[in-house]
Amino acid sequence: MDLANRKIVLGVTGGIAAYKCCELVRRMRDQGARVQAVMTRSAHRFLAPASLQALTGEPVFDDLWDERVADGMAHIALSRDADAILVAPATANFLAKLANGLCDDLLSSLVLARRPEQCRLLLAPAMNVEMWEQPATQRNVERLRLDGALLLGPAHGEQACGETGAGRMLEPDELLAALIAAFQDKCLRGRRVLVTAGPTFEAIDPVRAITNRSSGKMGYALARAACEAGAQVTLVSGPTALPAPFGVHRIGVESAAQMLEQVLAHVRQADVFVAVAAVADWRAAAFSPSKLKRHALAEPPPLQLANNPDILAAVAALPSAPLCVGFAAESERLLEHARGKLATKGVAMVVGNLVQEALGSDEVELVLVEAAQARTLPRAPKLVQARRLVAAIAERLSAPLQR
After folding, report:
1. What's the pLDDT score for residue 401?
2. Measuring CA to CA, which residue among 242, 243, 241, 273 is closest to residue 259?
3. Residue 17 has what pLDDT?
């Protein structure tokens, strides 16, 4: 649970998006967080305090002079043991107050009284598109960013008023991902990372194809972990059912040739290239534009194969190649094959795993192979392993002369 032992103060202001807070609280608690809700008076018009009290298991506070706090200083007492304050929704009025240091209620006083080095501030704006685009709102947002607040969104889309544009509050799963990311080490801050993930789909005819059972989970976990670590991440993905991690730019492809094209289009801006995708080694030598038909008692049509491009080797051979990390999915002699791939591809690291344990699974044991050493990363959820790999990559980047 990524938020275990964390206390999160959830501030709710008066916007229609307040209804999303119920699901957000449930998800935060699923991740182990203790959640303390604080509401503004106007928030009561959109959400009943009893709902948040039931979901958080804690009394809801909304009064600067609340007598339940022994010394009468709720704005101090509620902030001192908090790890983060997340205001969702954050209305235009509330953002304006914070940007100018105004505190005329419990929530604004609580935010101003927090210790920034101990308690992070995350703000999820929600308002009409015209309110969001007003120069005054944009000035306030920029000031809040400069003061150290993390602005989450807003998203673009249809709004409760019927208009469309920027101003929608992010969805609960996106806010949860951003909150979890706020507690991760920013060891890749300022770096650009390019990741491939998933299988490729090599068409034989309009219906059939050569592919594999890769779920894409490891590549998506690595893209998320790199983004959490502060990197700007581009994910080139074969066909999967997975949503793009929050904050990650995903480019969808099908074939190995398409994946290579997108990788080469983006790799020159990358500091790190991680080839996690299970790229098909072969494709049909000739594509049939019409469906191949089965005829009774006839032999199946011959299938001639051609080699697919080696994407990792192509990137590693570039004149100014980024730090390259490959994956070796093997069914036997894992360390031997991983070392071989390290040498033949000319890359900095190879991450090995056994296909019978890794494909489709949520957990995996990995072997991280470098020229001077090999170490085992004990079996763990793929996101945990991804964060370990990101830390190893960051460590390698800090020693650029190593080969």
Report:
1. 45
2. 273
3. 96
